[in-house]
Amino acid sequence: MKVYKMNEPSFKMDTTYLYNEPRTIDLSKQIGNATIWPVYPKDSLSIYGTKYAPQLRIPLSPAFGQELLQQRADGAFKNDSAFRVWLNGIAIVPDTTNGRTMLYTKINNGETRMTVYYKNSEKDSIMANFKFDANSSGHAHYFTRNYTGTEAASLVNTNNPLGDNVVYIQEAPGIYTNIQIPNLNDVPNAVINKAELVITEINSGSAGRDDLFQEPNRLMLRRYLTHDSLGYLFDYGNPSQPEAEYFGGNKIVISDLGPFKVVQYKFNIARHLQLAQQKKIENSVLRLEGWSSRYIDLPRLKAGGGSATPRPTLNSG
Fold it and tell me: Which of 49, 243, 248, 308 is most buried, by CB atoms within 10 Å?
């Protein structure tokens, strides 16, 4: 991980920043770096005789520390505005050319800070803390996925009219799958008592790292109202009080043989199909996606599609 000075004078606390819009940093002003292992820190720290809970620490360069100490009370340290002119933020950036991982950190826990260790003519063990506070500090995340060279890359946005034999889903911001149920309007008028869409995982074990990365705990199925807006299926119920248990979408383990665990997801869509079959709603394309309480998450799924085995099935009655 590397730490840079930000180069964005307008970066501020009272602005909401989108995760897919990168902030401006000065790559010529790297002020720190660290090589870390993506595991939860387990050992407490003792600093100047005081114990601290386990934490991720990134050393900043002595040159930056010296530059900070050279600031004056009538300059950068005059007030908050003056300090932000001198340093309007730092960016912690992963080095994705040397290892790839996903870290979940608690930034707004009252302990995130920049600490300067220094001495003067009277003491030789002094600390100055610059703490992060989400209520008074500008903050933003930038997150993007790069599928170049991956198995999924060749099947993203194929626009294959017959569908793809394998589909990939990764929780946001990731990959979703569009599903079309053809010829529904040609089905004779009948009462649909049950209709169940079944999605089954393709698990290749350690070869596809399916033994390492987990599947989404839940998938969501929505329908396109227009080409860029989505709505819930009628089977889902009122979004404010959804019939989630009836609608389905939760992960079900159907086989667990060592590394080759296979999961399945089922959706009840009888109401949707009945209305579409009666031409009361359009037989629109459906969108299948990972559903997480986090805005950014990691779980992913490889499932059968098109004529693959296993492939999506529609059970009806």
Answer: 248
SS3 category, 117: strand
pLDDT in tens, 160-202: 766 778 888 998 888 899 998 888 877 788 888 899 999 999 8
Q: Are the beta carbons of 119 and 134 closer than 8 angstroms?
A: no
Q: SS3 for 115?
A: strand
Give the list of residues 6+ apart from residue 124 with CB closer than 8 angstroms, or none.
none
- Please check the confidence at residue 312 and state whether its pLDDT lies above 60: yes
Find residue 170's DSSP bridge partners. Answer: 300
Could you identify the residue written with the tokens 């826990």?
A: 109
Gap between the Cα atoms of 272 and 294, Å rounded: 28
What value does the mean pLDDT take over residues 44-51?
83
Joined together, the tokens standing for residue 47 give 């600093």
Of residues 143, 111, 114, the one with CA closest to residue 32: 114
Place of tokens 């199909």: 273
* Sole residue written with tokens 């299948």: 288
Assess contact for 269 and 281: CB atoms under 8 A: no
Q: Tell me how far CA of residue 274 lies from CA of 100, 186, 268, 317, in angstroms.
A: 46, 13, 12, 12
